[in-house]
């Protein structure tokens, strides 16, 4: 194991380096949800890049299996999630190496690291657990019993699993020597039927996290990649004297800076910037994602061209050009199928001969890597999903302008007008509920820019000047004004305009902001989306967002919903919101940074609050404080709110000046008595509470599960207060303030 993990590829061209020398600590947090995160991982990073809404529990690699002193249960299964390229695999390698060399986790007698890529190759084979270990780890052949041994199994890359892990219908297996199908063996190992004393560590991308039942998992952790200080340290190490200028440039371009959470992206970006800084004085550095990936492709092609053609100036050698196009075809076809890993048969279908590829275009092992599986079955993947999306966009662009064939519609167009291709791409991307084509669309539109086409001259067919892009830009602006389009899809269209170097909408908003004229203007949906894009592209942490600073209207709220989502505290007081606003707001609460939300003095009514409660009950919701003063609520709202109290971490709730009455308060008390309820402050000023409601609250205060410390019943008529005073004197009661 020391030999296997002591060296890692510093870059995927084949250069290796000692793991202990190049390893940089990653930011790992404890806690998280298992719900499917269906958004594009770039959007996931954009949200995560904001200042955390609440203090997060960080955990080191060495402490993953250390038991919590407050919990009697040992940690059996750790699920670690993280976006592609964030460093999950290297993390497992570092853990394994530290154990093998005696630096950490020496309470483990045995450690068996597997990848799902390896296991996929055996999906049609039967094994016992003992037989599987003997197959992979020859030193274990004398091992037949695990009695009194502390064992850890590492299963890396659940999102790549091609085995049918059915936890509801798979029969129970307890004998480690019994031969079964591999999926039966894995299911029983994960749920603890087989070898219940063993520990497991499973890594996955967020979208696949819910494949493991929650009851099987001890803790969920998340690898966030590089923090902002770690990003700076990485670039200081790579650029030394030029690091200040490089860091300043990267920070000025939000889309690049966000992607730098990924170690692999930092490497790609450094590769490009180092070459540009070496070649010219005062070079023009990449301003967009597309431009950066174009430079990356050109740099790699130039290195290969010089290597094969005795230092000649860059021209796309036939074999290099063919290789790029074949990789593009593979990237697009596999992207359509949702595949990130491919086999030799997939390569052959795209005209890729791996032997020829390694001879003529070894440089593209930097873009494309292979991992040896069992029985010489090799698994291939691009070094990051974004590289696959870029090459897929390159293939679609080249195919259309060289043959007239639109791969997105499977139609032939003889005139080959750019706007025809771009419109179909925009339409398809907007139809996606998950945004899985968002980055592909940014790249495809970015490739139409003349500066990018000049860099790829000899590889791409030229499509005219930037003037020809105006039809596409006009179409995108029309889409931005359409009703029914989600705020997230609109935000991506703004990114697309940025890739096409069209900043007209953003500049218009900046001008209006400087003039202080937003609150008086009748803004279009496109303009609100542009303001949202502008605020999210700034380097401010959005600690507090007050909608009234811009415009107190429902239209403004819906247009700025992504900003609300990424804020820590949202003040939406008296903004003319209706029940119509509550559905969209509820939909973002499950992935929002919000801890404080003030919706006071909006006519939300019972129907709106019921919609809002659906979002508040979602496990990932971080909201701690909710204010609904004067929102036109009746006792009917109290049932859904009680359900929220018994299933969330809400600590402060203000329902003052609503017509809740005694029946509503009684419903709220059902939630307050829940063992899960953490509410500390409840304000019911002016809610028509009488003696019956006061008695219900007194009973709640006397409950051992109540956490209430502050209760506001001012401007109510609870009648005799003897029961409340008795509750206050009760030793169990935690109440400190009663109004």
TrEMBL record:
It comes from the Eukaryota. PROSITE patterns: LRR, NACHT. It is found in: Cytoplasm. Residues 76-208 form the NACHT domain. Keywords: ATP-binding, Cytoplasm, Leucine-rich repeat, Nucleotide-binding, Repeat. One of its GO terms (molecular function) is ATP binding. Coiled coil: none annotated. Its main location: cytoplasm. This is NACHT domain-containing protein. It comes from Periophthalmus magnuspinnatus.
């Amino acid at each position: 194991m020391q030999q296997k993990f002591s060296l890692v590829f510093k870059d995927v061209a084949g250069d290796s380096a000692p793991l202990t020398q190049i390893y940089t600590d990653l930011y790992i947090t404890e806690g998280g949800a298992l719900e499917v995160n269906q958004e594009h991982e770039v959007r996931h990073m954009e949200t995560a890049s904001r200042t955390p809404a609440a203090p997060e529990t960080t955990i080191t690699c060495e402490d993953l299996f250390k038991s919590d002193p407050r919990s009697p249960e040992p940690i059996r299964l750790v699920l670690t999630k993280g976006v592609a390229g964030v460093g999950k695999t290297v993390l497992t390698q570092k853990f394994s190496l530290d154990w093998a060399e005696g630096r950490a986790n020496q309470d483990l007698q045995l450690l068996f690291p597997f990848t799902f890529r390896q296991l996929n190759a055996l999906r049609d084979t039967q094994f016992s657990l003992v037989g599987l270990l003997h197959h992979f780890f020859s030193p274990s052949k004398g091992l037949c019993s695990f009695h009194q041994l502390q064992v850890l199994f590492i299963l890396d890359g659940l999102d790549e699993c091609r085995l049918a892990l059915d936890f509801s219908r798979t029969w129970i297996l307890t004998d480690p020597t019994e031969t079964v199908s591999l999926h039966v063996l894995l299911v029983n190992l994960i749920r603890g039927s087989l070898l219940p004393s063993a520990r497991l560590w499973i890594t996955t991308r967020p979208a696949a996290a819910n494949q493991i039942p929650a009851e099987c998992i001890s803790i969920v952790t998340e690898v966030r990649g590089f923090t902002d200080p770690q990003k700076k340290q990485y670039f200081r190490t790579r650029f030394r004297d030029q690091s200040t200028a490089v860091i300043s440039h990267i920070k000025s371009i939000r889309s690049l800076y966000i992607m730098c959470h990924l170690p692999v992206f930092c490497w790609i970006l450094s590769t490009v910037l180092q070459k540009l800084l070496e070649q010219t004085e005062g070079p023009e550095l990449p301003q967009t994602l597309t431009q950066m990936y174009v430079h990356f492709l050109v740099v790699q092609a130039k290195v290969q061209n010089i290597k094969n053609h005795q230092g000649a100036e860059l021209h796309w050698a036939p074999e290099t050009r063919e290789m790029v196009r074949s990789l593009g075809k593979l990237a697009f076809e596999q992207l359509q199928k949702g595949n990130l890993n491919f086999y030799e048969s997939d390569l052959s279908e795209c005209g890729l001969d791996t032997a020829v590829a390694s001879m003529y275009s070894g440089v593209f092992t930097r873009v494309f890597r292979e991992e040896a599986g069992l029985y010489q079955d090799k698994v291939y993947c691009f070094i990051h999903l974004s590289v696959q999306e870029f090459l897929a966009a390159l293939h679609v662009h080249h195919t259309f302008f060289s043959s007239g064939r639109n791969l997105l519609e499977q139609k032939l167009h003889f005139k080959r007008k750019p706007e025809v291709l771009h419109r179909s791409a925009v339409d398809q991307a907007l139809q996606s509920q998950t945004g899985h084509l968002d980055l592909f669309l940014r790249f495809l539109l970015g490739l139409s820019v003349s500066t990018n086409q000049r860099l790829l001259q000899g590889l791409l067919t030229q499509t005219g000047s930037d003037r020809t892009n105006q039809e596409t830009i006009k179409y995108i602006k029309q889409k931005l004004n359409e009703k029914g389009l989600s705020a997230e899809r609109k935000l991506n269209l703004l990114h697309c305009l940025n890739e096409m170097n069209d900043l007209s909408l953003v500049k218009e908003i900046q001008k209006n902001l400087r003039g202080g004229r937003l609150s008086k203007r009748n803004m279009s949906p496109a303009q609100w989306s542009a303001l949202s894009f502008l605020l999210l592209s700034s380097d401010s942490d959005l600690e507090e967002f007050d909608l009234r600073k811009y415009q107190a209207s429902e239209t403004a709220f819906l247009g700025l919903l992504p900003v609300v989502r990424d804020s820590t505290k949202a003040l939406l007081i008296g903004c003319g919101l209706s029940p119509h606003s509550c559905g969209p707001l509820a939909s973002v609460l499950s992935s929002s940074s919000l801890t404080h939300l003030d919706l006071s003095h909006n006519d939300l009514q019972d129907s709106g609050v019921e919609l809002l409660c659906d979002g508040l009950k979602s496990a990932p919701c971080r909201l701690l404080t909710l204010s609904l003063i004067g929102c036109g609520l009746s006792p009917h709202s109290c049932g859904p709110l009680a359900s929220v109290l018994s299933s969330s971490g809400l600590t402060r709730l203000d329902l003052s000046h609503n017509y809740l009455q005694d029946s509503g308060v009684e419903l709220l008390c059902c939630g307050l008595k829940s063992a899960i309820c953490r509410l500390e402050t409840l304000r019911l000023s002016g809610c028509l509470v009488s003696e019956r409601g006061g008695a219900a609250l007194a009973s709640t205060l006397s409950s051992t599960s109540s956490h209430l410390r502050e209760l506001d019943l001012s401007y109510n008529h609870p009648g005799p207060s003897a029961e409340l005073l008795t509750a206050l004197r009760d030793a169990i009661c935690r109440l400190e303030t009663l109004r």
